[in-house]
Fold this protein.
Amino acid sequence: MLITRIFPLISFVAIIGFSGCSTNVDGHNPSSSVYAELGGSKKIEEIVENFVVEIERDPVILAYFDGADINRFIDKLSEQICHRTGGPCEYSGDTMEQVHGGMNITEADFNRTVDLLINAMNKADVPHPLQNKVLRVLAPTRDEMLYL
Ligand code: HEM
């Protein structure tokens, strides 16, 4: 239904609006990190695997991945989520600007990708309040990849 597709988008937009208020994205307090709440790397791997399946089913977003190395994407995205949620990982991939800069990603397609990530978290049984925390730590990536 339309409302179930619009609601997560609205909440993400609201989260982006308030992302400047977020704390604890650098893992300074691992005992209360989003990473710990997720249950660690296994859950992040499940989310990322589900996310790839969602991307493969979406022709609009899949088109961006033409020629991409999916195994590297899985690896680096997992690292990035682990790092940004306060887990014990260093991110060893390219910067968000370097990777996405030349892609001309539209606002609509960024939001569409976020919807796919929400689907992936739903399928991994991540509770909605925790999904919002994950989205909040990823929200700054928006400005690192749009209008570059
Ligand atoms: C939601 C926020 C996003 C995050 C956190 C994110 C993160 C990443 C990461 C970590 C990589 C791998 C970097 C590397 O290989 O060193 C990557 C690659 C990629 N991302 Fe994103 N991404 C996001 C949104 C998007 C969006 C909206 C699109 C397109 C609609 C997109 C398209 C791609 C593509 C095509 C690649 C593969 C590039 C290649 O291997 O040539 N990403 N992303």
Q: What stands out?
A: Residues 61, 64-65, 68-69, 72-73, 76-77, 80, 93-94, 99-100, 105, 109-110, 113-114, 138, 141 surround protoporphyrin IX containing FE (CB under 6 Å).
